[in-house]
Every structure is written in structure tokens, then in C-alpha cells.
Amino acid sequence: MLADDQGVAVVxxxxxxxxxxxxxxDLAIRLTERGLTVVSGLAAGVDxxxxxxxxxxxxxxxxxxxxGIRRHCPPENEGLQQAVAEHGAVFSQFWPDRGPDKTxxxxxxxxxxxxxxxxxTVEAGEWSRRCSTS
Length: 134
Known about the structure:
Layout: E1 7-12, H1 18-33, E2 37-40, H2 46-56, E3 61-64, H3 78-86, E4 88-91, H4 104-115, E5 118-122
């Protein structure tokens, strides 16, 4: 984390609705307009929308991923992971080739909540709380 970096995590459902997608994009844009970093997990759905919107408006975005740095989850976000690295940073606390499993994402969520003083959840299913850090 940069000393003067203030980030807000934007997280939520991987199966985001069209209205949730719009909310995630609008949030990311408004946060970057205020000089804040958009932090998310590079997952499908809300995370992808937030990262892309921040990049589109020239903002800083940071991904805390649930795999090793040489892996991509979902695989279709490989290009987005590179774009996030170019517009901010990509962090992983796992060995570089570590793949995803049921333990890596809750650990990632804890790291993300430690990095970001605030978290905004856009659409989350009933079982999303299972991955919370509380």
C-alpha cells in the first residue's frame, strides 16, 4: 500500500444482475473521481465491473487475488489482470503457481479488508457471508 493511497473495496456477486453491474461501475467511477483507489478481487461479476470501470476513467485499481500471481481466476480475466497491474497493482499472498481452492478466497477477502478502510458490497447471495472475515 502506498502511504497516501486510500482505497475502497468494491465486491459482490460473481453472478451480478444488469442493475448490479451498473451500480458497481458507477461506484468505481465515483470513487476514482474522488481520487480513491478501487480495490477488488478480480473475480467474475462485480469485481470485474469495478476494475474495468476504474481503468476506463483513468483511475487507480488494485486487485487482491485468490490465486498465485501467475494464475488467473477466472481464466478470461487474464488480460484484465495485466491491465490492473498497469493501472495500480495486483497482490497475491500465495505461491506464484497456486491455483484457486475453497481456502484461498476467504484468505484473499481478509487481506482485501485489511488493505481497504471501507468495503462496499454490491449484490451478495445468502451464502456470501461464509467468506467474510468476521
